[in-house]
């Protein structure tokens, strides 16, 4: 009798370097590829609007790739556990193979599955495939989770790395009886009305798009990454984040290609390639922290920050979300996010800092907005990023270090090209005033056709006053903690 495996796709929407697929093939199973849409199982972090758009496109690319291999993707929606039970019953498969996830709700689903299939004759194999290391196997000398990045990365980086990939066969063997699935459009992942034009222009979700991005990055930007990575006006970073979030490319593959590229390069280029590898280390660190501190998507890792005197302010929150704070670098970032579903890392730090320090609004509000609008929304990376900026996370920037949005703009967007791209109202402003347009003389403003309060807002707050207020809030928290 033919033996069958369910190949369960989750955040690993790829065929190459897919250890779960390799395992099913090595064990001579006929394979049924399955994806389950189960937003209710995500513990309040169901994919946001931008992520759903990406997921639709990525599943559609995966389904097309699988079709070419003769193994159509079965898509179903509903409770993961119930659907798995149904599919096993319908197919009489004896192996469930997939990759682990690290978010608390996803881990709970995995535990339920292990429990439910125990003694059922179905073997459940959830493998490593989305990270370079497994958080439960990687602790410091005291047997505790790392909370500081540098020692974490030093140890992780020094581990012997093995990259063993067998490629994808021309045909994936499938059983004669194939369970039925739903159509992708039945999942209702796409927004109505369709506002995704900017995302369509910017991205090609799916495995092919991921490889193209990697190749484009390695061809040039990777060699000067260390110098250019903080410049939002350049294409100096890989833009691989959403592809990594959805598992369209494996971090092992990215690491492998970075190391391969490094051979024979100048020391400067090698330093750039290793700086990029280090960023993958931050991704690892973020997942490690989320795994060991599962409350952190909503609670600060540093408990004293539970007593921080955050303000309320729907109007300011909305101005920030819409890119109408009157600070050009902040507004450009927020508009880039809204239109393209992505924002440059430096600008993520600046916009986040503006929310939590200048506007004194809780970091959780910002994290939720990013969650809904980022195509790369990732619970581990987003939580780390927000807690880092808010000063309440592991190895975080201290709260008292407050970004000045004018200086940040002038330093990292020196010619103003980034701001001009995303804020057309400021398109004709000379670079000298671009990051502080309110200081420009009246004749320069009128020559640039900037009419404050009409086509571009006045600053919602004075930065130096906001800075003092934020430091006062920090003192207040300290008093409360005692
Ligand atoms: P590159 O510079 O090319 O880096 C390569 C890869 O390393 C990235 O694709 C990403 O997977 C990883 N990486 C880089 N920087 C970080 C970092 N600081 N922390 C963790 N991983 C990193 N990243 C997400 O993937 N999803 C998020 O939801 C997310 N939210 C963030 C929120 C805030 C407030 C901040 C400050 C950062 C956030 N980041 C998030 C991290 C970082 O901004 C993005 O990973 C990066 O901008 C993606 O661009 P890239 O692929 O060109 O990065």
Notes on the protein architecture:
- The chain is mainly α.
- It has helices spanning 19-26, 49-68, 80-91, 104-117, 149-158, 197-202, 207-219, 225-228, 241-245, 251-262, 267-292, 314-322, 328-340, 345-358, 363-373, 379-390, 405-412, 417-422, 431-434, 442-447, 463-481, and strands spanning 4-9, 30-37, 74-77, 95-99, 123-127.
- It has a 5-stranded parallel sheet with strand order 3-2-1-4-5, sandwiched between helices.
- Strand 4, helix 4 and strand 5 (123-127) form a beta-alpha-beta unit.
- The longest helix has 26 residues, at 267-292.
- Bound molecules: flavin-adenine dinucleotide.
- Flavin-adenine dinucleotide is lined by residues 229, 237-241, 244-245, 279-280, 282-283, 286, 345, 348-349, 352, 370, 374, 376-378, 381-382, 384-386, 389.
């Amino acid at each position: 009798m033919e033996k069958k495996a369910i190949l369960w796709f989750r955040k690993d929407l790829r065929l190459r370097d897919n250890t779960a697929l390799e395992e099913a093939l090595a064990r001579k199973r006929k394979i049924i590829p399955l994806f389950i849409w189960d937003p209710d199982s995500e513990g309040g972090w169901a994919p946001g609007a931008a992520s759903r758009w990406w997921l639709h496109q990525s599943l559609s690319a995966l389904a097309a790739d699988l079709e070419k291999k003769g193994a159509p993707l079965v898509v179903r929606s509903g409770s993961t556990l119930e659907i798995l039970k149904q599919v096993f019953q319908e197919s009489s498969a004896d192996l469930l193979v997939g990759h682990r996830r690290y978010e608390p709700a996803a881990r709970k689903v995995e535990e339920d599955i292990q429990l439910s299939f125990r003694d059922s004759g179905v073997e459940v194999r959830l493998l490593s495939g989305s990270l370079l290391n497994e958080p439960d196997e990687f602790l410091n000398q005291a047997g505790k989770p790392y909370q500081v990045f540098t020692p974490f990365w030093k140890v992780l980086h020094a581990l012997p790395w093995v990259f063993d990939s067998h490629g994808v066969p021309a045909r994936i063997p499938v059983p004669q009886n194939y369970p039925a699935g739903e159509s992708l459009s039945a999942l209702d992942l796409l927004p109505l009305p369709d506002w995704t034009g900017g995302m369509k222009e910017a991205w090609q979700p799916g495995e092919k798009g991921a490889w193209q991005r990697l190749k484009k990055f390695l061809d040039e930007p990777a060699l000067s990454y260390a110098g250019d990575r903080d410049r939002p006006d350049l294409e100096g970073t890989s833009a691989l984040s959403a592809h990594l979030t959805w598992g369209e490319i494996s971090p092992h593959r990215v690491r492998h290609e970075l190391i391969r590229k490094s051979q024979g390069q100048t020391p400067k280029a090698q330093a750039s390639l290793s700086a990029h590898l280090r960023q993958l280390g931050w991704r690892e660190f973020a997942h490690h922290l989320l795994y060991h501190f599962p409350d952190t998507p909503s609670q600060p890792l540093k408990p004293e920050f539970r007593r921080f005197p955050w303000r309320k302010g729907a109007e300011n929150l909305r101005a920030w979300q819409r890119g109408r704070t009157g600070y050009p670098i902040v507004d450009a970032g927020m508009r880039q996010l809204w239109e393209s579903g992505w924002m440059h890392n430096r600008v993520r730090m600046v916009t986040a800092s503006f929310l939590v320090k200048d506007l004194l609004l809780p970091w959780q509000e910002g994290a939720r907005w990013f969650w809904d609008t980022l195509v790369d929304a990732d619970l581990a990376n987003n939580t780390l990023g927000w807690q880092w900026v808010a000063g309440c996370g592991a190895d975080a920037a201290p709260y008292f270090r407050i970004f000045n949005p004018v200086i940040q703009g002038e330093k990292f967007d020196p010619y103003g090209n980034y701001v001009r791209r995303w804020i057309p109202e400021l398109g004709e402003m000379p670079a000298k005033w671009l990051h502080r347009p309110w200081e420009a003389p009246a004749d320069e403003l009128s020559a640039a056709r900037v009419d404050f309060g009409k086509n571009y807002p006045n600053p919602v707050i004075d930065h130096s006053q906001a800075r003092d207020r934020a430091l006062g809030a920090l003192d207040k928290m300290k008093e409360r903690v005692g």
